[in-house]
Write a structure and sequence with these properties.
The chain is mainly alpha-helical and 185 residues long. It folds into two domains: 113 residues, no CATH class; 61 residues, no CATH class. It has nine helices and no strands.
Length: 185
């Protein structure tokens, strides 16, 4: 997952960082790397800190590209502070970079996870940000626990599991639509 994230950050970082006079050229690579690290660590904090609602909201449809999404705002604020602290960028320049790059990268990541033709899947995203194991299964358990109540049992087997997620990725709403039903988005 980190490779896909790095590729997206490099892709969208060209305009926000490399072509930005506020960022000294010798810091371009480090700023781009910091953006990727900031996104990854923020998603991990959401998964481990009880932010499943925020995480589900982020994965719902096109919300990842919406700068008013609370999860996007949180990640943007974290990166803004980090860029100011580590690279001495003024707050306006740091906020501009973060506000430009974060929604695009998160939107690209969610689109890749929801694309049935892409080898990168939602389970990869959840596993990577939760560290796999118990936390990953905890997120899926939460989806399963409440999912049947919200009509998320895609294959009518009485439980919501990865089979339903796979069925949802083939439908027009994708997994974001599935999670959106669960969390009322």
């Amino acid at each position: 997952m980190f490779e896909q994230l790095t590729q997206l950050v490099q892709q969208f970082g060209q305009d926000a960082v490399v072509n930005n006079n506020a960022v000294p050229n010798e810091h371009n690579d480090a700023v781009i790397e910091e953006a990727g690290n900031s996104i990854f660590s923020s998603l991990q904090k959401m998964a481990s800190g009880g932010g499943i609602d925020q995480l589900a909201g982020l994965l719902n449809g096109n919300n990842a590209q919406d700068s008013s999404n609370p999860a996007v705002q949180q990640i943007t604020q974290q990166l803004t502070g980090s860029l100011g602290e580590k690279f001495g960028l003024d707050s306006n320049a740091a906020a501009g970079i973060a506000g430009s790059i974060i929604p695009k990268v998160l939107g690209g990541l969610v689109n890749k996870a929801n694309d049935p033709n892409d080898s990168f899947q939602l389970t990869d995203l959840i596993g990577a940000i939760s560290g796999g194991g118990a936390q990953s299964s905890g997120i899926m358990d939460a989806i399963s626990k409440y999912g049947t109540q919200f009509g998320l049992d895609q294959n009518a087997d009485g439980k919501v599991d990865l089979s339903d997620a796979m069925a949802a990725t083939k439908s027009s709403g994708g997994i974001g639509g599935l999670l959106g039903k669960l969390f009322g988005k």
